[in-house]
Amino acid sequence: MRPLRRPFRLSVVTAATTVAALTALTGCTEKSGAGADGAIAVTATDTKCEVSKKEFPAGHVELDIENKGSKVTEVYLLFPDDRVVTERENIGPGTKQKVTAEVKEGDYRIACKPGMKGDGIRQDVTATGSGKIAKRDPRLDKAVASYRKYAQEQADATIPLVKVFAEAVKDGDIAAARKAYAPSRIGWERTEPVAESFGDIDPKVDVRADGLEEGQDPEKDWTGWHRLERSLWQDGKLTARDSELADQLVTDLEDWQKRVGKAEITPTSMANGAKELLDEVATGKVTGEEERYSHTDLVDFKANVEGAEESYALLKSVAAENDPELTKELDQQFAALNTLLDKYRADKTGYDFVSYDKVGKAERKELSDAVNALAEPLSQLAAAVVK
Amino acid sequence: MATEDPSAEAPSHEPPSSKAPDTRAPSRRALIGWGGAGLALGAAAAGGAAAVARTGDDGGSPGAGAAVAFHGAHQAGIATPVQDRLHFAAFDVETDDRAEFVAMLKDWTAAARRMTAGQAVGDGAYGGLPEAPPDDTGEALGLRPSRLTLTVGFGPSLFDRFGLAGRRPEALVDLPQFAGDNLDRARSGGDLCVQACADDPQVAVHAIRNLARIGFGKVSVRWSQLGFGKTSSTTPEAQTPRNLMGFKDGTRNIAGTETARLKRFVWVGAKDVDANSAWMSGGSYLVARRIRMHIEPWDRTSLQEQEDIFGRDKGEGAPVGKAKERDEPFLKAMLPDAHVRLAHPDSNDGATLLRRGYSFTDGTDGLGRLDAGLFFLAYQRDVRTGFIPVQRNLAADALNEYIQHVGSAVFAVPPGVRDADDWWGRALFSPSTTEG
Q: Which own/partner contact pairs does A331-339 have at CB distance under 8 Å and 24+ positions apart?
């Protein structure tokens, strides 16, 4: 989280030109296409996702969905990189739903998710047309799809952890709440640029006191993790308001969990997202501003680095081809930063880090230097990916 | 020696269009392996940015916007005319990889060559890939070269690394503890330093910022100091500037044209070096001291006491009993603890320094006091016969009641970069023990 909230993280939200070619058309209602008669019938069961046709003309597309299974399901039309073109949730057993979308020519997938869980049962489909679409390196589509899956997994894994935290707050159990606080943030911190791309969620869950807008009252308008952090560590007491805030945090994060799949992610936004995670470290964590009451900054720090490393790992094969010196440098600097971070935790698989107020000025500078050493070459990753 | 004469800079500052390939592009991207494609991509952008900055400077008068020659027997920024602004940075080395450090010095040299000529670093500040940050940070675009000089020095601690122990010159001693020192470790020392001087502060800051950026992962900034208002001059025709105490100091500073005094007191000569320190021949030793002034007490001091402390009058700058600033001082007329008397070469067996200090003001110190003083920079042929005896003699200085030395560093400043194939520290890092 930045000290001052910005409406959007540009590199994530403003999709690079490469994605424009794949983006669904909008506001184009009279296009010829499958039409009502040409609708694609999707028959969902608990084990199958059958589609009536696998090729259809680009333009207006209608999915006629019938759930013949025993579980509630949801149906997605997906881009090859797993970005959502359109979706319909909560399709009960025995019910029918219609979904429409405007699509450009290209490859897509239809996925049914019986029980609304997992990756779903998928069918490859193609929208045909006369024009040509600039093909992206399929390895990059795969990288984006994998990263999207990672972001979803992080959100999914966060919900139970934040519920543990919220319950402890509501129980008035300060010790348990303090213990559950930092772990509940790890998934968020790992994928923060994606989470922040939904401009409205971040200010609800991760804003700090100094990030409130003019006229906002910290007692009334400040919500999210850091408000509870203040109650737990600075105030040392939990009130009815904190219980409300705990419930609100869960609700807001469930909103994030539902929307992660719709984030616009491109290879360059992944690369720049990795760099942004290091920027988060450089501006908030290394100074101790992020977790000013709990001093759990190093947990966030580690999670940010892990998220950046995930993006990098997925893009590495392409980047290494275009710029082997860069990936060599990045491997080295990630390793160096991780080695340095390991000095601050006894167990290298755990997140029990040294309290940041115990980290001296010289040690903080050492951490800052290591972040600069990694973030500078990391800022070149996007160029190496699109080259 | 580097000079400000525009005709002297011709060989090293051709227009961008005629640039030899090896004079361009310390591209950060190239650094981390962007390779040949980056070179091709950069040619147009860099040329464009450079053209803006260079227009009108080459043939113009050597005024405030001109370029100072980067190549020469000695590094520019020592005997060349003192500019008004300073950004000084000391770095710690982070890497243990000698080749990586050498590569950085080459990249720094290439970047310095361009920046001192008023050109952007690498592929420039715009026009490159939209998804990547530009090579140059851009805040000096459109500004003139502003007589930017970049001067590199190597600290004693550098010689503990990279197998350089045997190459540390004897004259590069660790400074002793002086009476009254209250040194802050975080503002002292450093494995290497860069002194950036320019007429425009933005140009000096731009230079350090870009070098620091190129250095990330290899070196990190240990401390840095901004300076304004030069406190001494290397051009005798210019008026002696005043320090923040309001006094003229350094009237007899060595001028850039005084070849004999420079040779005697500033430049390391062939006889000063052995096979292991031959790389320093043509170089100099730099002492940097952050001297905090107790400004408010000083301002409450009577004029008489102020003048007694310095041994000069405040208006003219004339030494005690004399009429004009440049009149030969009669030291015995001054109080025994007067600053000029104790600092004068005649009180120090002839020891003479080339001073290049700047005033600094870093806001206030939290107690409402101005955090200000003199960032003292002095060049000499040997620290043991230069700064050390003079500073020891100043232990009795009446001025000490109003100043405190809070930062300190010493550096070996190698000779100049000779041509487009040369780089900072080449002779030090070359395998031969004879002078390169």
A: A333/A370, A333/A373, A333/A374, A333/A377, A333/A378, A333/B217, A334/A305, A334/A309, A334/A374, A336/A370, A336/A373, A336/A374, A337/A305, A337/A370, A337/A371, A337/A373, A337/A374, A338/A305
Taking each helix axis from N to C end, the angle separating A297-322 and A267-280, rounded to the nearest 10 degrees, works out to 150
Chain A environment of B35 (Cβ under 8 Å): 323, 325
Judge whether A220 is closer than 8 Å to chain B, CB to CB. no
- CB of B150 within 8 A of CB of B116? yes
Quick one: how many helices (H) and strands (E) in chain A? 14, 9
Asked if residue A288 lies in contact with residue A365, where contact means CB atoms within 8 angstroms, the answer is no
Closest by Cβ to B132, choosing from A325, A369, A380: A380
Out of A272, A326, A374, the one facing B33 most closely (by C-beta) is: A326
Judged by CB atoms within 8 Å, which residues 118-137 of B form the interface with A?
129-133
Residues 6 or more apart from B125 whose CB is under 8 A from it? B49, B134, B135, B136, B137, B138, B141
Tell which of A128, A160, A182 closes a domain: A128
CA A218 – CA A206 distance, rounded (Å): 14
Contact indicator for A266, A197 with CB cutoff of 8 Å: no
Contact (CB<8Å) A376/B213: yes
Same domain, residue pair A108 and A148: no
In this structure, the answer to whether residues A109 and A150 fall within a common structural domain is: no
Using CA coordinates, name the residue in chain A closest to B41.
A387
Please count the structural domains in chain A.
Answer: 2
Cβ distance of B217 and A376 shorter than 8 Å: yes
CATH code, domain carrying A259? 1.20.1420.20
The pLDDT tens digits along chain B (436 residues) read: 444 443 333 333 333 333 333 444 445 444 433 333 333 333 333 333 333 333 333 333 455 689 999 999 999 999 999 999 999 999 999 999 999 999 999 999 999 999 999 999 998 999 888 888 999 999 999 999 999 999 999 999 999 999 999 999 999 999 999 999 999 999 999 999 999 999 999 999 999 999 999 999 999 999 999 999 888 778 876 678 899 999 987 788 899 999 999 999 999 999 999 999 999 999 999 999 999 999 999 999 999 999 999 999 999 999 999 999 989 999 999 999 999 999 999 999 999 999 999 999 999 999 999 999 999 999 999 999 999 999 999 999 999 999 999 999 999 999 999 999 999 999 999 875 444 3
- Same domain as A70, residue A164: no
Residue A201 and residue A183 share a domain = yes
Query: Is A75 in contact with A123 (CB distance < 8 Å)?
Result: no
**Which CATH number goes with the domain that contains A77?**
2.60.40.420
Estimate to the nearest angstrom the gap between the alpha carbon of B92 and the chain centroid: 17
For residues B316 and B251, give the distance between their C-alpha atoms in angstroms, rounded to a whole number.
11
Size (chain A), residues: 387
Establish whether this prediction's ipTM goes over 0.90.
no
Give the C-alpha distances (Å, rounded to integers) separating A110 from A40, A43, A101, B133: 10, 11, 12, 38
* Domain membership flag for residue A279: yes
**What is the pTM assigned to this prediction?**
0.77
Asked if residue A33 is part of any domain, the answer here is no
Does A146 lie in the same domain as A113? Answer: no
Domain coverage including residue A364: 138-385
Q: Are residues A248 and A112 in the same domain?
A: no
Domain end position, chosen among A99, A128, A157: A128
How far is Cα A355 from Cα A345, in angstroms, rounded to an integer? 10
In contact, A375 and A282? CB cutoff 8 Å: yes
Residue A204: inside a domain: yes
Coil, helix or strand for A4?
A: coil
B133/A272 Cβ within 8 A: no
Confirm whether A15 is domain-assigned: no
Q: Are A214 and A144 members of one domain?
A: yes
